[in-house]
Task: inverse folding
């Protein structure tokens, strides 16, 4: 099985999207995690999952301006989706 370029869109459940993104790296896939639909809540669960992302070398991005996370505009999002082998929508 060849490694894939994957994009995980965190639209409804940010914590679950972080878990999925981290898990996909175990198989050697390249993973981009993009948070959507509002800021990431600073809950204990999200903080724990963010630490896991660091261990997996995933630098999340967001479509929500004004966050501490790297912002990605609509053109950047479109390009990421076009380059992806698969998109996972959570």
Result:
């Amino acid at each position: 099985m060849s490694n894939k370029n994957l994009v995980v869109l965190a639209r409804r459940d940010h914590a679950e999207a972080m878990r999925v993104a981290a898990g996909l790296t175990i198989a050697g896939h390249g993973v981009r995690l993009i948070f959507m639909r509002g800021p990431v809540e600073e809950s204990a669960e999200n903080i724990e999952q963010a630490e896991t992302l660091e261990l997996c070398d995933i630098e999340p991005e967001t479509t929500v301006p004004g966050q501490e996370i790297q912002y990605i505009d609509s053109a950047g999002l479109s390009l990421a989706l076009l380059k992806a082998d698969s998109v996972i929508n959570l």
In short: The helical segments are 14-25, 44-55, 74-83.
